Amino acid sequence: MHIGELAHRTALSLRTIRHYDRVGLLHPSARTEGGFRVYSEEDYERLLLIRQVKVPGLRPG
After folding, report:
1. Torsion angle of alpha carbons 9, 11, 55, 15, nearest 10°?
2. How far apart are CA 52 and CA 26, in angstroms?
3. Residue 6 and residue 28: Cα distance in Å, rounded?
4. 47 lies in which domain range?
5. Is residue 58 included in any domain, yes or no?
6. What's the number of domains the chain is made of?
7. What's the confidence (pLDDT) of residue 53?
8. CATH number of the structural domain spanning residue 16
């Protein structure tokens, strides 16, 4: 799935997901030839876990 679908399914913003990629918490499973991020169901599950343990008040950089 692409980042937009992942954002919709997790109720997180694109900015937040990109931030998690930049800081090493979540990396896309693949990229298209055009460079778009592609996420798997495992990535989705990992993001749900990250969302659960997120520190209150911590904002994406």
Report:
1. 100
2. 14
3. 11
4. 3-53
5. no
6. 1
7. 85
8. 1.10.1660.10
Query: What tokens does 46 get?
Result: 């990992």
Would residue 45 count as lying in a domain? yes
Q: Name the amino acid, one letter, at 56.
A: P
**C-alpha span between 42 and 31 (Å, rounded):** 15
Q: Is-above-0.85 flag for pTM? A: no
Taking only the tens place, the pLDDT of each residue in 27-57 is 999 999 999 999 999 999 999 999 888 656 6
User: Can you point out the beta strands (E) in 1-61?
Assistant: 30-31, 37-38
Q: Which phi and psi (to 5°) does residue 59 adopt?
A: -110, 145
Assign 60 a pLDDT band (cuts: 50, 70, 90).
Answer: low
